[in-house]
Design goal:
Elements (H helix, E strand, L loop, with lengths): L1 E7 L8 E4 L12 E3 L7 E3 L1 E5 L6 H17 L25 E9 L2 E9 L4 E8 L6 E7 L2 E4 L3 H8 L8 H7 L6 H10 E4 L5 H14 L1 H14 L3 E10 L2 H9 L6 H5 L6 E12 L5 E7 L5 H19 L2 E4 L8 H12 L9 E5 L16 E6 L6 E5 L11 H6 L15
Parallel strand pairs: 5-16, 5-17, 11-15, 15-16
Antiparallel strand pairs: 1-2, 1-6, 3-4, 6-7, 7-8, 8-9, 9-10, 12-13, 13-14, 17-18
């Protein structure tokens, strides 16, 4: 479970911003929170929505988590001199000389952890890992430049630190060398966290849904029920992966940029394609029900979009993953977007503590019947510095009967585009 994420000096984010999924004391929508095992029985939110105008920094909050995940999972492969993905705030000259900072609080296997790092283009400048056995803070390691401090397993960790390059995370190197205390962090980033967005490889996502369907009868039934939400006429799915036919291969070649064509000529006859057909119940001319098949490619954009998402959704719900999604509503009707969010908010569907964080422009979702106030977040750019500010609706202490959508559209919470003139 994700508790909180903090980032500074990254793209449009200058000063530290905090996205917190720690639930407030608000008693509304008790089903929208998860209680996790700790001495204080702390609670986190199942979902969180981020709103704001274009170029306000919504996507950069998501991108920050994606970059942090990339460095954690890959830095052990970096050779000396490899440049780190350092993209500081550009509207202040001083920021190019300051490190980017990422820090995350999360729960893995029932234990809470805090892991953070700071880095510039050439090196990791700071790094630390704390955990909270029985609710009390304990230090695994702290790193400041080339200096390390260890409170446990000092001899073993000192040896591992000496094998860690300046541009490599200690957490990545130590886990690669089978040091057990750092494994939960890598596990959380590798197995729990999924950062996604609207620009994806559709065949790959279709294939993933097929894989999830084949895992179990329960998974298939869950996907079938979900697809019925997109089209009530869908009663079954006939789907498998097949070798690409000659005609399909030639069509793909014709639609491909010329510079790619020589590469594909070498794999002719070896490529595979998804064969997905939705079975619809319709009424025939004789008034009797019939089953008709329709290839997924001929279905509505919303149906196709839902099919590419639902495999990840069912997998996350079954395995307690944290899904971070940029622009969730793309090509989806409002009701389908609300349906996907509702799966995470429903404790009957979400029994493993899965979480969904998404950005959106669908203001119809700004409804206190769907969300608690602490689940709704906004981004806006500071008019003077151009930096992103991130804040929660909970800061406004709104009444529970307030029309949040109307309040947002009238500028009560900020985070709206400012249009100075009209386009003729």
């Amino acid at each position: 479970m994700l508790i909180e994420f903090r980032v500074s000096n990254f793209k449009s984010i200058r000063e530290e911003v905090t996205l917190s999924l720690a639930a407030s004391s608000d008693p509304s929508h008790p089903d929208n929170v998860i209680s996790y095992h700790s001495p204080d029985d702390e609670r986190v939110l199942r979902t969180a929505a981020i709103y704001g105008p274009n170029a306000s920094g919504k996507s950069n909050v998501i991108a920050a988590l994606a970059v942090m995940q990339f460095i954690v999972l890959n830095s052990h492969n970096f050779q000396k001199g490899v440049r780190l993905p350092f993209v500081p705030f550009k509207f202040s000259e001083g920021c190019k000389n300051e490190p980017t900072s990422f820090e995350v609080d999360f729960v893995e296997d029932g234990t809470e952890y805090t892991y953070g790092l700071k880095f510039n283009a050439s090196q990791i400048t700071e790094e630390h890992l704390y955990y909270y056995p029985k609710g009390r803070k304990a230090t695994v390691f702290e790193r400041y430049g080339k200096e390390f401090t260890f409170k446990i397993d000092r001899k073993e960790q000192q040896f591992l630190s000496e094998m860690t390059l300046d541009n490599v995370l200690y957490i990545s190197r130590a886990t690669q060398m089978n040091y057990g205390k750092t494994v939960p962090v890598i596990k959380w980033f590798a197995e729990r966290l999924r950062v996604m967005g609207p620009i994806e490889v559709q065949p790959q996502n279709e294939r993933y849904t097929l894989e999830v369907m084949e895992r179990s009868k329960e998974s298939r039934e869950s996907i079938m029920r979900s697809m019925s939400a997109a089209d009530f006429g869908i009663v079954d799915i006939d789907a498998h992966v097949k070798e690409m036919s000659e005609d399909e291969f030639n069509l793909m070649i014709n639609q491909m940029p010329n510079e790619w064509k020589p590469l594909l000529g070498q794999v002719k006859g070896k490529l595979r394609t998804n064969d997905i057909r939705m079975k619809h119940r319709v009424v025939g001319p004789d008034g009797k029900p019939q089953i008709k098949e329709l290839p997924l490619v001929e279905e509505s954009e919303g149906t196709k979009r839902l099919f590419t998402l639902i495999g990840y959704w069912i997998d996350a719900l079954q395995n307690g993953r944290v899904v971070i999604y940029d622009e969730l509503e793309v090509k989806l009707h409002h009701f389908l977007t609300a349906f996907l969010i509702g799966l995470f908010n429903d404790p009957e569907q979400n029994r493993k503590g899965a979480q969904l964080i998404f950005t959106s422009h669908d203001v119809d979702l700004l409804d206190q019947e769907l969300f608690r106030r602490d689940q709704i977040w906004f981004t806006e750019k500071d008019a003077d510095s151009g930096s992103t500010r991130l804040y929660s609706l909970d800061e406004f202490s709104e009444r529970k009967d307030r029309d949040i959508e109307k309040g947002y559209l009238t500028g009560r919470y900020g985070a709206l585009p400012f249009i100075q003139g009209r386009v003729v």
